[in-house]
Amino acid sequence: MEKFQAVLDLHLKHHSALGYGLVTLLTAGGERIFSAVVFQCPCSAAWNLPLVFLLVPALALFLLGYVLSARTWRLITGCGCRARASCGSGLRGSLVCAQLSAAAALAPLTWVAVALLGGAFYECAASGSAVLAQRLCLHRDHNCAAELPLVPCHQAKASDVQDLLKDLKAQSQVLGWILIAAVIIILLIFTCVSRCLSPVSFLQLKFWKIYLEKEQQILKSKATEHATELAKENVKCFFEGSHPKECNTPSVKEWQQISSLYTFNQKDQYYSMLHKYVNRKEKTHSIRSTEGDTVIPVLGFVDSSGINSTPGL
C-alpha cells in the first residue's frame, strides 16, 4: 500500500511532465508503426515529392492537441453567448493562443523528428525533388535524375545512383537531430524566460499548484454532492407529484465567470477564478476583465485544471 501511495504521489507531483512524456512515447511509437506497416513510397517522380505522408499526420496531431487542451474549451465554450466579452481578442487572446499552440506542437514535432530520424519519408520526398536531383546527380550517371525517384524502392539500375540512398538517409537524420536540438533549445529558453519573469517566487508557485489541486478535488466532491441532491429531489417530486424544495444553484453568469481564463493582477493575487469570484468586492461586478489584468505564461497551469482533466466532447 505504501508503494502504491508513493507512485500516486509521484504522479500527482509530476503529472504534467509524465503526461508530456507519455504523449511523446505514443507519438514516436505510432510513427514507427506507420512507417513500417502502412507507408510505402510510390517511387514515382509525380508522387514522391508531396509531403502529405509526413505533414498531414503532424497537422492532425496538432489539431488533436487543441482538442485535448482544457484551456481551449475554457476559451471558446459559451463564447457566442457573451454579450460584451470578446472571445480571446487582442493581446490577451494572442498570448493564450500562442501558449496553446506551443503545447499542441509537442506531438507533431515529435512525429516529424522521429520520421526524419527513420529516413523513409525524407528519402521518398527528396528523391522526387528536381532541385535536389541537380545537386545529388552532379558528376554521376546521365540517367541519374530519371532514376532517382526509384532509389527508395531499390530499383535504380545504376549502382552509383542507388548509393544515393545513403546520402538521403544521412541528410534526413541530420535534419532530425537539428529539429530535436532546436526544439530543446527553444523550450529551455522559453522556460527560463517565463520563470525569470514570474511575478511569484518558486515556493509560492509550489503552494499555488497545491492549492489548485485541493480546490479542484473539493469542487468536484461538492459538485457531485450538490448534483446528487438536486437529482434526488427532482426524481422524488416527479413520482410524488409535489413541488421541489428550493435548492441554491449558481447562475449561468456565475458559472461563466469562474470558467473564464485566468489573468494575474499584482494588486489582488488570487489563485484561481473561483478564488477571485468569491472575493469580488461587488456582487454585480464582472471579474473577467479588470484593469491591470495580464496573462502570465508561467501561470498557464491555472487554466489547465478543472473538474475533469479531459474535456468531454
From TrEMBL:
- What residue intervals traverse the membrane? 45-68, 100-122, 174-197
Look up keyword Membrane and say if it applies: yes
Example of a GO cellular component annotation carried by this entry: immunological synapse
- What main location does UniProt list? membrane
Annotated GO biological process: ATP export; regulation of natural killer cell cytokine production
Report whether Ion transport shows up as a keyword of the record. Answer: yes
Q: Which GO terms describe its molecular function?
A: monoatomic cation channel activity; voltage-gated channel activity
Q: Which Pfam family, just one, is annotated for this protein?
A: Ca_hom_mod
Q: How does it sit in the membrane?
A: Multi-pass membrane protein
Q: Where in the cell is it found?
A: Membrane
- Alphabetized UniProt keyword annotations: Ion channel, Ion transport, Membrane, Transmembrane, Transmembrane helix, Transport
| Membership in a protein family | Belongs to the CALHM family.
Record protein name field? Calcium homeostasis modulator family member 6
Organism of origin is Rhinopithecus roxellana
